[in-house]
Each structure stands twice: as C-alpha cells, then as structure tokens.
Design goal:
GO biological process, one term: regulation of translational termination
Largest sheet: 8 strands, antiparallel
Distance between the termini: 29 Å
InterPro entries: EF-G-like_DII, EFG_III/V, G_TR_CS, P-loop_NTPase, PrfC, RF3_C, RF3_dom_3_sf, RF3_GTP-bd
Subcellular location: Cytoplasm
Strand content: 25-35%
Bound molecules: guanosine-5',3'-tetraphosphate
Family: Belongs to the TRAFAC class translation factor GTPase superfamily. Classic translation factor GTPase family. PrfC subfamily.
Oligomer: single chain
Helix content: 25-40%
Number of helices: 14
Protein name: Peptide chain release factor 3
Strand order of the largest sheet: 18-17-23-14-15-22-19-20
C-alpha cells in the first residue's frame, strides 16, 4: 500500500532528527484540501462562510456573501455572474481550524460549467456535498456528483437546513444511495426538523448536541451536550420525539451501513451529517468528523511514477486559469495545486510544457474574502500565479533534478458547436487573440479545418452558457463582436496521433478538424456516423476525450 510506504518513509526521516524536514512534514500533515458541491441554493456559500467563521478567518458571518444583491461577492469577477446570479468561476479559500490548515475549493453551481468543476475536483483530495433537507438530491447535485465519482474521491455529505421543515432523514439517505449510487452512513442523526428541530444525536459518542438558535447565526453558537438518558433531555423532548429517537438509533445500528473508513476513502461510502448552516448548527461537529476521516494531501501520479507530497522537491500543476481577476489590469492568474514540497515566493521552477525555467514572483492566495500575497505554501495548498500567457490547464512546474509532468487533465467532449466569425474583419488580430486566450483558459474549446486558418473557428462547449461567456468576454475584453452560427454536430472523437485522416472512410456529414494543440479529431452529427467510422475503418481508435 502506497500510503503506508509513504508514512514509513516519513517516520524514518523524523528518526533522523532533521528538524527542518520535520517542520516541513508537520506543515504538510496539517493540510486538508476539499471541493464543495451543491445544487444552487442548498447552502454552499453559507456553509463555506460558517467554516471560515469557526476557523476565525472572518469575525462575523455575512462578510463573504452579503445580501442578495451582492451575492457571490468573492467571485464576482465577471459581470455575467452578477447578471445571472450564478457562479461561473470557482474560488479558493484557506482557513485554519484546530491546528489544521484547510483549503476549500468552491465549484460553479451551474451544470454548464461542469468541466470547470471537474478541473477543480482534480485539485481536491475530497469533496463535501451540501444537500437541502427539504429538497433532497436535486438536478445539479446529480450532475456534479457524477463528475465527483469520475475522480473516485471521498465524498462527505452535509444535509442542510434542518431548521426548516425537512424530509424524513431515512428517505433522504435512501435517495442519495439510489440516485447517486453511493452507500451512506449517518455519523449523526437529527431530532425533529423545522420548529421542532432539537439537535442531533452523535452516534459515536452517544451524545446529543442540542440546537440553540441564536441571532441568525452571525456568531459562533454555544453548544449544549447531553447524554441520551439525561433526565433534562427526557424532559425537554416530548414523548413522541424521544421515543422516535430511541427507535431511530436502534434501527440505524441494525439496518444502517457500518462505518468503514477504507470505503469512505475509496469514495464508496459517504458519511452523512445533519445541520443548519444558517444558524451555525452542526458546523463544528461536521468539521471535526470530516477532519478525522480525511487524509493528508494525496500523492499524485505522473503516469510513470507517484510523487510523494512529503518530498522536499516542489511540484504543482495548473487546474484553472482565470482572467479578469483584477478589472483594472486585465490580468490572468493560473491556479496551481501544489503536489509536493514547499513554495517560496520568487522561487525558480522548471515549466515542463514550456521547456524552460521561470521565476514565480507574483503569487496570491485567497484568505476569507481577501486576496493576499503569499510567501510560503505547502503540498495541498492552492496558489494563484500571475500568468503572462505562458500556462495552459494541466501544465506542471517542478524544482527537482528529474523533469516530469503530472498526468494531464482530460478535456470533456463538447456537446454543442457553433461556427464563429468576426463581424468586423479589420479586427482579425483581436478576434484570434481573444478566442485563443479564452480557449487556453479552458473556458471553450476551439477547432479549425485541417490546414485551415483562423477566419472561421468552430467553438465547442459542454454547456450552452459557455457561448454566452465567450460572446460577453470577446466584446468586453477584446472589443470584438462575433457572428455565431449553430452547427449540427453532437459527437466528437479524438483520433490517435499519426492517423491519416484523408484515407478514412467516413459518412459525408463527418467533419475533420484539429484542436488548439494540433490534434486531429472528427465531428459527427449523429451516433450512426460514429459507428460507421469505427466499423468501416479497422484499427481506427476514437477517443471520447483528449488526455492533453
Ligand atoms: P448556495 O451557495 O448553495 O447557492 O446557497 P446559499 O448559501 O446562498 O443559500 C441559499 C439560501 O438558503 C440563502 O437564503 C441562505 O440564507 C439560505 N440558507 C442556507 N443555509 C440555511 C439553513 O441552514 N437554514 C435556512 N433556513 N436557510 C439557509 P436567501 O434568502 O436566498 O439569501 P439571503 O437573503 O439569506 O442571503
């Protein structure tokens, strides 16, 4: 087992008494990095904010997400987000709690940006799924969850809004199991809901945490913990609730899934906690459970070898590129997940894909609602590096003697295609630059005819809202207006390098194109065309996503 080996390795290093090394190991051991997913309005922003509140990163709730009109304050880098009230981009926040250093990666709630969610999940070691207790599994939860399972990471469930009328907790857990195909295990259990919400029963400690609603949840709440047979509790709960709780506990022990940490870490069993983010209830218990079940930063693979996060050599990869972080300067920031070693500001690294050494000067980290200059960061952390246009999604930077690249982040197959042209032909340069830059950030995918120029570009997107983002950004950032013509393609397949496309036997409506990296691919209008291509051309390998 790889993790065991790494731990033994670490143990020997500590025996050697290398103090500098052991300080470094302590820092990495403190790190926990997770993504947070939910259907819009389930309470992701509120929960994130309450984590920050408990971590002391903010003094009062309400600072990250203001009132409705200033919603998504942390990520309102784009007008379109504000107009539509959706979060297009994801942000990263760091806070400390009980000696841990926790990185939260927010994900866009809209399914049209599920590719962005996938990339964000690539940077996370586990995910927290927030579910509205009155609604259960919703459309977006389903879609985002699917993306989560592609990564096989542990998923922790927080069932939120217990202070409102909620559905039956058994039903909710069953729905998660059936709709999402993951086993669940209740870590705690709610006593009533809505006006009758009395708190949760902690199954491990066999204790009850009483719900004491205060002041709209702006400050941390006092907790009252009681034993199950505490006469005060028996008094406080009416007979019906007390008896129901007793039955529930018995039933859970007999019929519920047993807790199994191995399964949790394999992403096959999701621990479930109940609470109410708005009133701060259940946040701390959730954090505590979560922290005992999650691991230190996980090792990452280069395809040939595994990189130990505790190795002193620094390595990181780009999972996200974000333009317009600062409207005044129109800058681009490349977000890196640090996979091993320690980052120090100004350090020199080797950029594998660029094939040269570069200095990492302008580095940022998000703490609560502020972006701060970061001087040091460790494996598990996320840093934003100013990008003069040299980085692409998936790029690797390293400091060690051996040069390597982490396994690429797959590109999702786009499902919608349009041909775009520049309205004003005099602005060709801006048009090409804009489209290429936006494609490099991974916000769209672009294709051109084999050997063709950039006058007409085929744009492929996973969700149609991405077209809107493209049009909006070209107009606002590059002063370019486009003519967009929808194309009938529905399926896309990459072909293996070296395959001669001209000799292929294809249906007449199949289009041969190349992507930004010069890889060849085929666009089909229907499934029949895909089948024709593979049946009529023996040995032709059609790939559903590009690994580069
Ligand atoms: P999201 O990021 O997942 O989209 O959800 P968000 O946190 O913005 O929460 C959506 C709405 O649900 C907000 O109300 C928020 O106050 C409310 N909410 C979140 N957690 C709880 C909870 O535990 N209990 C209850 N009762 N409500 C909760 P809003 O009216 O849309 O916004 P606001 O005016 O309160 O800011």
């Amino acid at each position: 087992n790889l993790i065991d080996k790494l731990i033994i390795n670490r143990y020997y290093l500590s025996l050697q008494g290398d103090i500098k090394m052991s300080e470094f190991i302590k820092e990495v051991e403190k790190r926990r990095t997770f993504a947070i997913i939910s259907h819009p309005d389930a309470g992701k922003t509120t929960l994130t904010e309450k984590f920050l509140l408990y971590g002391g990163a903010i003094q009062q709730a309400g600072t990250v997400k203001g009132k409705k009109n200033s919603k998504h304050a942390t990520s309102d880098w784009m007008e379109i987000e504000k107009q539509r009230g959706i979060s297009v981009t994801s942000s990263v926040l760091q806070f400390n709690y009980n000696g841990f250093c926790i990185n939260i990666l927010d994900t866009p709630g809209h399914q049209d940006f599920s590719e962005d969610t996938y990339r964000t999940l690539m940077a996370a070691d586990c995910a927290v799924m927030v579910i509205d207790a009155s609604k259960g599994v919703e459309e977006q939860t389903r879609k985002l969850f699917k993306v989560c399972t592609m990564r096989n990471i542990p998923i922790f469930t927080f069932i939120n809004k217990m202070d409102r009328e909620a559905r039956d907790p058994y039903q909710l857990m069953e729905e998660i199991e059936q709709e999402l195909g993951i086993d669940t295990c209740a870590v705690n259990w709610p006593i009533g809901s809505g006006k009758e919400f009395k708190g949760v029963y902690e199954r491990n400690d066999k204790e009850i945490i009483r719900f004491i609603p205060v002041d709209g949840g702006r400050k941390e709440v006092d907790t009252k913990i009681m034993k199950f047979d505490d006469p005060e509790l028996v008094n406080e709960l009416d007979d019906e609730l007390y008896n129901k709780l007793q039955d529930d506990i018995e039933l859970l022990d007999i019929a519920g899934n047993n807790f199994d940490l191995e399964k949790v870490r394999e992403g096959k069993l999701s621990p479930v906690c109940f609470g109410s983010a708005l009133t701060n209830f259940g946040i701390e218990p959730f954090l505590k459970h979560f922290l005992t079940m999650t691991t230190t930063p996980l090792p990452r693979s280069t395809g040939e070898k595994i990189i130990d996060p505790f190795s002193e050599d620094f390595s990181a990869f780009v999972f996200k590129i974000q333009a317009n972080m600062n409207k005044a300067h129109r800058d681009r920031m490349a977000f890196f997940r640090i996979c091993s070693g320690k980052f120090t500001k100004g350090m020199e690294v080797y950029h594998y894909q660029g094939g040269r050494k570069i200095k990492l000067n302008q580095s940022k980290q998000l703490m609560a609602d502020e972006r701060q200059e970061v001087d040091e960061a460790y494996a598990g952390d996320i840093i934003g590096i100013f990008d003069p246009g040299i980085f692409s999604i998936g790029d690797t930077i390293t400091t060690g003697k051996t040069k390597f690249a982490f396994e690429g982040i797959p590109t999702f197959a786009p499902e919608h295609f349009s041909l775009i042209r520049n309205k004003d032909t005099m602005k060709r340069k801006q048009f090409v630059k804009g489209v290429e830059q936006i494609a490099k950030e991974g916000a769209i995918q672009i294709f051109t005819e084999l050997g063709g120029g950039m006058e007409e570009i085929i744009v492929g997107v996973v969700g149609v809202l991405q077209f809107e983002v493209l049009e909006h950004r070209l107009k606002n950032e590059y002063n370019v207006e486009i003519i967009k013509q929808p194309l009938p393609y529905q399926y896309i397949r990459w072909v293996k390098e070296g395959c001669d496309l001209s000799s292929l036997n294809l249906s007449s409506d199949t289009k041969k194109v190349q992507d930004l990296k010069g890889q060849h691919l085929l666009l089909f209008t229907n499934e029949w065309g895909v089948r024709w291509a593979s049946e009529k051309n023996s040995g032709l390998e059609l790939l559903e996503f590009s690994k580069n």
